[in-house]
Amino acid sequence: MSTGSDDALVAPGLGGEASTAQAASSEEPGAGSRPVIDLRQVTKTYGSGDTAVRAVRGVDLLVERGEYVAVMGASGSGKSTLMNVLGCLDVPTTGQYLLDGLDVAEMDEHALALVRNRRIGFVFQAFNLIPRTEALANVEIPMAYAKVPRRERRERAMAALELVGMADRVHHRPNELSGGQQQRVAVARSLVMSPSLVLADEPTGNLDSESTDEVLAVLDQLNGMGRTIVVITHEDHVVRHARRRVEMRDGVIVADEPVGAGVPA
Ligand code: ADP
Ligand code: MG
User: Fold this and answer.
1) 22, 74, 143, 185 — which has fewest CB within 10 A?
2) What confidence tens digit (pLDDT) does each residue in 199-252 have?
3) Enclosing domain of residue 163
């Protein structure tokens, strides 16, 4: 799949307008109007026979560009399994997943790796920054994989760090930063390829309340700029920042409703 391979090199801005520009310059006509996520009767079963675990049992989910969705549910309800599918880290057992209108089932490992690099920005509970490596270099990593030229890498990493309020800490290493600051660096890293989707798995799970607010403020700001965000969480506080709440139980969606700013007046 070569679609989008050059988009990454045209240095789109880091805001939501970038995804429009990216879609407009890509080879897929109308990509910008397609849902970012289109899950159709997706199931995921681990193992087989007597010990099979049906972690996801038939999920339909449409997420349009610019949405801010919180996926919640008790431990074991299938959130991480769903996140792995959404992030193209795992493929559905049955059903279909269209990301930006592209069927992931038709992709080989290489194409999936490209999709993860170009179309999805990951934010993890444990930050997953490279230790002993300064913030700037951490943020450059997705662009290094994508072979973005060095100078442009630096410029885009600086812009992303500025966006998350970390411009004055670009040469700090992870162990010299608070949890909230580390997570903001991780958010900056998730943005540098102008992904269609920012996918965050319990992004505030390791943070104190002050750092949690810092990170949630950054996510609010990104969504305000038009970024599509899906956050997996079990914290009500986090859900209230989203505009739509999807609740899972026993591998299915049991609620899907507007919240916070998304509730119609
Ligand atoms: P959550 O993230 O909501 O806690 P998970 O998606 O991690 O839920 O798990 C859903 C169900 O699938 C659980 O019963 C869990 O034990 C099971 N499960 C998750 N990952 C695996 C795996 N790799 N192999 C077998 N069972 C798994
Ligand atoms: Mg989980």
Assistant:
1) 74
2) 999 999 999 999 999 999 999 999 999 999 999 998 999 999 999 999 999 999
3) 64-81+108-260
Cα 211 to averaged position of ligand 2 atoms, centre (Å): 21
Give the strand pairing for 102-103 and 94-99: antiparallel
Q: Is residue 91 part of a domain?
A: no
- pLDDT over 90, % of the chain: 85
| Residue nearest atom 18 in ligand 1 by C-alpha distance | 55
- The H-or-E segment that residue 136 falls in is helix 135-145
The CATH number assigned to the domain holding 199 equals 3.40.50.300
Q: Mean pLDDT for the chain?
A: 89
d(CA 265, ligand 2 centre) in Å: 33
Domain count, the chain: 1
- Residue 1 in contact with residue 114, Cβ under 8 Å? yes
Nearest CA to ligand 1 atom 26: 46
**Considering the entire predicted model, what is its pTM?**
0.88
If one residue of 43, 51, 53, 254 were mutated to test the ligand 1 pocket, choosing by the most ligand atoms within 8 A of its CB, it would be 53
Which residues does ligand 1 sit against, CB inside 6 Å?
A: 46-47, 53, 55, 73, 75-81
Q: Kind of pairing, strands 53-63 and 197-201? A: unpaired
**What ranges in 146-224 are assigned the alpha helix state H?**
150-163, 179-191, 209-224
